[in-house]
Write a structure and sequence with these properties.
- Keywords: Cell outer membrane, Membrane, Signal.
- This is Membrane-bound lytic murein transglycosylase F.
- It is a peripheral membrane protein.
- The structure is a single chain.
- The chain is of the alpha/beta class.
- About 45% of the residues lie in helices and about 15% in strands.
- α12 crosses α19, α14 crosses α15 and α16 packs across α17.
- The chain is globular, with a radius of gyration of 24 Å.
Length: about 475
């Protein structure tokens, strides 16, 4: 979308449209692997708008400082995912909903102390984002030699990537971004010494008392019904499931082993409509892409199928191509057999749990969730009841009895991490156009690439000025 002259946003109470400034990134707003707009901020804003009968117009703004400047000029009603501060005149903040620590990111071939010493002594310059400058100003009173450069536009993950690629030595970013990005860039380490926590909130003009009231009510509601916690779990609940050595091993096999099977995973996607990258992550979780893998329990092959499952799916489990197809068919059978009310992505995560522990035990865990007043259609809830299947107090009350219920939880969360890595570095079989609800519009005047696999897009294509992606 070409850049255009910004105009003042009409009062939302009259236009019934909320103009929302947002920065793109894996913690806020992006296009996911399935071609849907996603992100914690996107989900929260669209729910808030829906509950208040409003349309939403998201405007992607790469420059953090301009979020506040544009609010002050009345070019939008909200700026979301920003750090609460007292420095911005004419701006007020809604309730805080997430705490973020500024952390130092450095190459893991250096020690933490040597990195800190280099920065504090002025021997090296640290790169950061505008929202962390205030903390650095305070730190400079104790260490006058401290110097930094501010990346006015872009996102924090790009700074982590630059450290990994040795383009810069050090970066200070938010803890949530650092922890997510470390999966993709295991060459970096995160300092355990961090700055003071900073609170995220939504910002608005200080003369909009009605919007402030509605936001206060909204955040009280999403806290009370646990939906904020579930959204947080959806985007962050699996970030610490794999350690850097696991990422290194996976990324190595991604280039050395995965190409042997990639076309077969894509053929399985064509039959089952399951993302080939998810199937590849499943195969890695099962066998580390070893077609000769065997377990003490008698499951074998690339997708670790039992004899009965292989026969049921009509495949030879020792043939890698057929194993992939059989595993994909079985996962599709589990996914499609769940209640129609189960929405994505929970539908897929529940199906993967069933792939690991068996459908019967998954149904038992969902029943326990119902009994405890939780949502049996939510992975965030069911993963709290699966471990109860080890306790006779619970497994004696359900149909299929005892199970090592903690294992499918770790299984799914780890698999999700491997899937995230593949999504970041491997292109989809078929590019997906993002789909919007009728009451949502996205404007991207700076032509930022919003796909979650943006590293692939940057490497293979040049931005098209008319593209909204």
């Amino acid at each position: 979308m070409p850049a255009n002259t910004a105009h003042q946003a009409p009062p939302w109470t009259e236009s019934r449209e909320l103009v929302v400034l947002v920065q793109n990134g894996p913690t806020t707003f992006y296009v996911d692997a399935e071609g849907h707009y996603a992100g914690l901020e996107y989900d929260l804003v669209t729910r808030f708008a829906s509950e208040n009968g409003l349309k939403v117009r998201f405007v992607v703004e790469p420059n953090y400082a301009k979020l506040f400047e544009r609010l002050q000029r009345n070019e939008a009603h909200l700026a979301v995912g920003v750090h609460q501060t007292t420095d911005e005149s004419g701006i007020r903040f809604g309730p805080t909903y997430q705490s973020v620590r500024p952390v130092l990111v450095y190459r893991n071939d250096r020690s933490e102390q040597s990195a800190i010493n280099a920065i504090m002594s002025g021997a090296a310059t640290v790169e950061t984002m505008p929202q962390y400058v205030q903390g650095l100003d305070q730190l400079k009173t104790k260490s006058p030699s401290l110097t930094w450069r501010v990346a006015e536009a872009g996102d924090s993950e790009e700074l982590v990537e630059a450290v990994a690629q040795r383009k810069i030595d050090y970066a200070i970013v938010g803890s949530q971004v650092a922890e997510l990005a470390q999966k993709y860039y295991p060459q970096v380490a995160i300092s355990e010494k961090s700055g003071d926590p900073q609170q995220l909130a939504w910002a608005m003009r200080d003369d909009d008392g009605e919007l402030q009231t509605k936001l206060t009510q909204f955040f009280a509601e999403v806290r009370a019904d646990k939906s904020l916690a579930k959204l947080t779990d959806r985007y962050y609940g699996h970030v610490d499931r794999i350690a850097p050595p696991d990422s290194v091993a996976f990324l190595s096999k991604r280039t050395s082993v995965l190409p042997k099977y990639q076309n077969w995973f894509k053929k399985a996607e064509a039959e089952t409509e399951i993302d080939w990258r998810l199937l590849a992550a499943l195969a890695y979780q099962e066998s580390h892409w070893d077609p000769n893998a065997v377990s003490p329990f008698g499951v074998r092959g690339l997708m670790m199928l039992t004899t009965d499952t292989a026969q049921r799916m009509g495949v030879d489990r020792l043939n890698p191509q057929q194993s992939i197809l059989g595993g994909a068919r079985y996962l599709a059978l589990l996914r499609d057999g769940l209640d129609d009310a189960v929405a994505e992505p929970d539908r897929t995560w529940l199906a993967l749990a069933a792939y690991n522990v068996g459908l019967g035990h998954l149904l038992d865990a969902r029943e326990l969730a119902r009994r405890q007043g939780k949502n049996p259609d939510s992975w965030a809830d069911v993963k709290t009841t699966l471990p109860l299947l080890r306790d006779p107090k619970y497994y004696n009350t359900v149909r299929f009895g005892y199970a090592r219920g903690g294992e499918p939880v770790a299984y799914v969360e780890t698999l999700r991490s491997f899937y995230d890595i593949l999504v970041r570095f491997e292109a989809p079989a078929t590019p997906a156009e993002p789909r919007l609800a009728a009451n949502v519009e996205v404007q991207n005047p700076a032509n930022r690439i919003l796909q979650i696999n943006n590293r692939v897009a940057r490497a293979k294509t040049k931005p098209v000025m008319t593209a909204a992606l």
